[in-house]
Amino acid sequence: MLLNHIRLKNWRNFQSLDVPLHDVTYVLGPNASCNSTLLDAVRLLRDVSKTKGGGLQAAIMERDGISKVRCLHARRDPEVMIDIELSHRSDQEVASWRYKLGFKPEGKGAQRLLVSQEEVWKDGKLLLSRPNSKDDRDALLLTQTHLEQIQTNREFRELADFLNNITYLHLVPQLLRFGEKIGGNRLADDPFGQGFLERLSKTPEKTRKARLRKISEALSLAVPQFADLRFEKDEMGHPHLEARYQHHRPNAGWQSEEHFSDGTLRLFGLLWSLLEGGHSMLLLEEPEISLNVAIVRQIPLIIDRLQRGKKNRRQVVLTTHSEALLSNPGIDERGVVLLETGSQGTTGRVVNADENLALRAGLSVAEVLLPKTRPSAVSQLGLWP
Q1: What secondary structure does DSSP assign to 209-254, as a single string?
Q2: Which of 63, 138, 284, 306 is most solvent-facing, going by the fewest CB within 10 Å?
């Protein structure tokens, strides 16, 4: 299933947004144009849908409250709204599922956060519309969505399960290396990879070995002197990644993840997440960070090849500022979303007719669209201070 359309109202810096999403979507824009914010709208629905530790109230509190997620340009309209469409095929005229969630502060007394609208559509037929008569009799019911409750989402459990299985990754190598030593409170769903090795540990051994074998093949092409990769547990039962490198000493031994480079760890995390597949959605934050330019250029091809296989196929939405990544000629222009900033906040759009002509003439996304994300006065930055 694909999340193929998203609409936002008063979400962070988006006063209004209405854009399609594809099998692979590249989100680009200037710094502070809310690239990450677009992904976070999808993450919010995932957090709401979680049956354990999730729900609307927890999801908003995790983001420091409604005042932090509501657009500053909202003025007199306090409602935040997220509206998505999902389809089993990209060519469907009518979406398989549509889910719309609006919420706002109560406006009196305890200032509770309440559901202002919740709608579920299946194949064009309305299944749920709130507030309803039960909500009118008991306003406390509006503190929860039906999406988050197993006793109320039975008719659209497929939708809830899809949202619950969305993965977000912005791996921070230091957290992966020293996650056990750092300890402390780990963020829900571990978006920064502090518990990434535990994720590997919970993967069935046969599946884990197969993925590590494929990743080892890729790393041998990308990392100088890399020879092999394996998963081990130490005497305390803590999981570790170990790599062996070609060396002038034939018995140089294996090195644990603490000695991996940032780029090697980020590439490993990217490849592992892509191989997890399962027809779920993957949100990637700037996958080019710490990677050699030559490797970055190959990321669209890697994703495209995995998209062709039924087993590892998963929808990917990624943010990027990388000229190298966007210079790949295989990028489908239909899957590009350009964010633009202005006095009324951030807006988003797809490729226009003139840009499409330039792309079809042989220019890359990096050549046609990336210059439009650059600050107008950036050339003067080199004159500072």
Answers
A1: HHHHHHHHHHHHHHSTTEEEEEEEE-TT--EEEEEEE--SSTT--E
A2: 138
